[in-house]
Every structure is written in C-alpha cells, then in structure tokens.
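Section: Multi-chain targets

For targets with more than one molecule, the full set of components is provided together so that the structure can be written out for the assembly as a whole rather than chain by chain. Components appear in the order listed by the source. The example entry contains two components.
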Amino acid sequence: MTAGTPVLAAVDWGTSRFRLWLLDGEGRALAQSQGPEGLDAGRNLGFEAVLRDHLARLSVPEALPVVICGMAGSHEGWVEAPYVQLPASLDAIAGTVVAVPGTALDVRIVPGLAKRSEAAPDVMRGEETQLIALTAEEPAGRMRVCLPGTHSKWVELRDRRVEDFTSYLTGELYALLGAHSILRHSLAGAADAQVDPEDPVFLDALHRAFAGPELLLAGLFSIRAAGLLGGLLGGLAGAEAAAARLSGLLIGTEVAVALRDEAAPAAVTLVASGGMARLYGAALQAAGAVVTTVDADRAVCAGLMAIAFGGRAGGLARRQA
Amino acid sequence: MTAGTPVLAAVDWGTSRFRLWLLDGEGRALAQSQGPEGLDAGRNLGFEAVLRDHLARLSVPEALPVVICGMAGSHEGWVEAPYVQLPASLDAIAGTVVAVPGTALDVRIVPGLAKRSEAAPDVMRGEETQLIALTAEEPAGRMRVCLPGTHSKWVELRDRRVEDFTSYLTGELYALLGAHSILRHSLAGAADAQVDPEDPVFLDALHRAFAGPELLLAGLFSIRAAGLLGGLLGGLAGAEAAAARLSGLLIGTEVAVALRDEAAPAAVTLVASGGMARLYGAALQAAGAVVTTVDADRAVCAGLMAIAFGGRAGGLARRQA
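Its structure, encoded as tokens over all components, is:
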C-alpha cells in the first residue's frame, strides 16, 4: 500500500454524529468529513444516502472499501452486527464484521461487545475498534484501558482478549444535571464551558470523591447548596466553580471505583482527545495512576485499518505521563 | 381552642405546589385547598393574590392566622426567612418565623435550615417544620429521621436540636433519568408508574446497592444494557423491571450511605406518605432498620400548629414496623 493514496474510508457512526476519514496505506488521514447525521438521520434519510454524501464530499471512488464502527451496527442501525460476547478475542471481533448487502459500495460494519452478566450486564459499540488499535501494537499481557465519554468504558485486556469491561454514565449525567436538574441554576451557562483540569475546585472535588465514592447522591445536592449559601462560602460559589465541582465529583467517583481493586501505582491507558483527555489525565494522576494517553480519533482510524487489512495498526502516538 | 372551629391556615408552599389546610384547635384538618401555584406563580400573580384565592375557596375569615413553610421563604420567595444555622434548636426555628409586612392578613413564614460546612454545605426548607412536629411529641434523646422526596433529607436530632443533616438528589435523579437519559428507552412510560415495593427486581436492586453503594454510575448504565440484551436475560427486560431496578438502585444507595455509621439495628423515623412511604419502608426494612412511619402531610400540619401556638403538636399517628 502506498503512502498518500487512499485505501480505506474509515467511519465512526454514532448515535448523534457521523465521522469519516480517508486513510492511506500507512493509516494516515488524507481528508476528513463529519456531520451531525447520527442514527436518526441514517434511518430518515437512508444510511447509504448519508454515507454516499460524505464520500462524495471527499471525491472517494466507489470501489474504495468502507469500514464502519459504532451504533450503525446496532439493532436500530443500518445492518445489525450482533454483539460478540465476553470474554472476546479482539481477533474474533475483526473476523466477524458484517458486510452490508444491497449496495454497490463495499461496506462492512464492526460488531460491538456484550457482557451477558445478570449482575452487571454491559454493552459497547465503537470502543472495541479502539481496543483493537491498542492491542495491535502491544505485547501480550494485561492492560487497563479507560475510554471516557458519554458512557465511559473501563476495560480489562489480557493477551488481546477483552476479559471484562464496565460502563459508567458519567458524561451523560454531567450533561443532564447541568441542563435539566436543580444544579442548572448553580452551573448557569458554565456547563458547556471547558473545565480547567488545574482548577483547585476540580482537584478538591476529585479528592473528595476518591475518599467517598459512595457519597455521590449527597455530593450532587451539596453543589446546589454551595450555590445558595454562596456569599458565605467564598470560592465555592459561582457557575464556573459549580461546573468544576460537578465534573470533579463525577469523574473522581468513576476513577475511584474503577481503580479500587488495582495495585498501586495502577498503569492505565487513556484513550481520549482534547479536553476530555486533560480532565481524565488529571484525575488519573491525582489517583496515583501511571497514565499512557492515546488519541481517541487516531485509535478509531488505526482500529478500522487493522480490521480492514489485518496486522499491525501503525501510527498510534503514545504520550506517557 | 375548640374542636371543629378553624384556628389556623397551615400552608406548605413549595417550588411547584401550593397546599393549604384549615386546622382546628386539635390540629385536625377541616378542609384543604391545593394547586400547582408554586414559586413562579407566586412571583407572577403575586404571593398574596395566590394565598387569598385559596383562602377564599375555603371561606376563611381574613383574621385567621396563616403560617407558611417551604420555598415561599426563600430568597426567590414572598419574604425571605433567612436560614437558621446548624446546630439548630427546633424551638429557635419556631421563634424566628418572619411576619409578612404590607398585608392585612396575619401571615408568618418559617425559616429553613442551613449547614454552612465547606465540605458538605446543605439546606432545607419545609422539612424543618415536620421535624418540629416529631420532636414536640418525643422524649429527649437521639433520633434518625428520613424524609424522602425530590431531595431526600436524612436528619440527626438530639434533644430537640438538629445536629446534622444531609440531602440526597435521589428523587430528582430518578425523574431526570427516566425522562431525559438513555434510560428513558428502557423505562419507556413506566417511569411515572408506581414501583411495587415487593417486586423482586426492586428488592434485588436494593441489595446490590447495599453491597456496593459506590457503584451507582455503573449500575445506571447496566439498566440500559439489560434492556438491550433483554431477550437473553429473562426477567431483567421490560419497562416495569427497568423502573423497579432504577428505583431500587437509587433508594438503596441512599439508604446504604445514610445508615453506614449506624449501629444495627438502626432505628429510623420515616416521614413520608403513599407510595414513597411504601418504597422507603421496604428499603429500610431490607437494610435491617427498625422503622417508625409518620405521615408527611400530618407532620406538616402538626409542625405548623406547634409553630403557631407553641407546645405539643398532637395527632401524629405513628406506625411501627
């Protein structure tokens, strides 16, 4: 495969977002097209029409292979790619992609993973592709992986197998509470602003959550109370402080629980980009973990390359902290 | 004071609800008027106009004393009744009611309570009146009181003083998650239905929460996963089961944390009515507590009577389980 020549259209098709990268033979992104066409748009406009629109924007030839991960493979998606069950070999996932019938395009969809446990059932769609990218480069052994987001995932990998994973409602709860709960008065417009990972209020909330991760329901109300009593509590008042406190409380609770059975110092691979990478990086460091950060978008592309062509997924820049 | 003759208009004026009881000298309700006129209606229509409308519905003479508890005394309310600070004598609360100026009516508003702690600031408005009703009848000593609701309160009383209290966002989170989160797909229309306190799914979720109250963020997502994997997990699927599981997870987490430092068996006074009393009663019993239940509405009336006229607040029926 030649550098600079497109060999794959790599697509992450989620509930509320469509992203396509045109990749060359070394997995480098030559061009990108993204839009708000999530699952609903696919169902209303037709999945093929949405995909063809984005391919046309980048003048992609019709014969180029397309590999899609994410919710497009769900029961509500284009073609259902049934969940692979735990414990799951990542090679098995790559081997069970589902070809989309009835189109002149060469489209395959990556299956998700399911944990069919009665005590703690769980599912993922999209993150499995990032895991494939991680392990394609790694030696055998154990890895703890944190993939933060709307529904953060913590994964236990061993020898290229997913042994276990747990999802946390962290990101969705942050958005919900800032928009719809009584805390919206305290956060005002600051819920969508980027929380500063070095803000002492954020760091203080992290440490409180580490010390008492079971106290979440009470901690949430105390953010409102701090707002009401604001003038008398100094730095705790103000919308930015409320957002930092909420973010620290939620992320700190997730990290404390996810690391509670790990020997210290825990080694964690963090798959994240931008502000999310900075906040989780700060939280993991505050918890004493040794963190290796991998860019989330590059992991998606590298995973889709590995699924399309097998073998090693090059080009995952790692940053150790 | 004569039985059957009205001596007090007792009002609970909350964020989204107005309730007025006409009470005789023994604290019995002769008539009741309620409506959706919460804080916003008071501000838009005028607090006095809303109150006079409800008084007129019950043909209450203008000279009858009116005592109001709840958000009408907040900064956004009719007249601010500043928070009394912890530790707070319940007699001090009764003694610091604020008379409403500028009206021909005899109206007084009960102050709320505030905990000005930097680690866990907290506030209440309305529940202090129910506490006054409880302690008016009780001998000196320690009481643990649970007042469930949108923002559940757990209170530590000692010798007619509020030593400490903690609010939990339990009820609001249940409503939010059922209406706005990804769990709305799993709960469908069942979020507003009454969860059965004897439902094995509710009881199972309680016990899981008791065993791991720090696992809330993960437990929430697993309700969605159970819905997605439904067909394969038997009884866990279905909207009613999802609602029971969410309710058990949230209430169980609150109860586990609130009782974690109590010697067993904990003695808890539960101030609640209707379905809420049944669910929290079941949760407290499942946690091994000895529960005495007091009807929440009767506690409001008895507390307002005690505030208006001092002395003992008769007529609090207690049911021990």
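Residues 208 and 249 of chain B are 7 Å apart (CA to CA).
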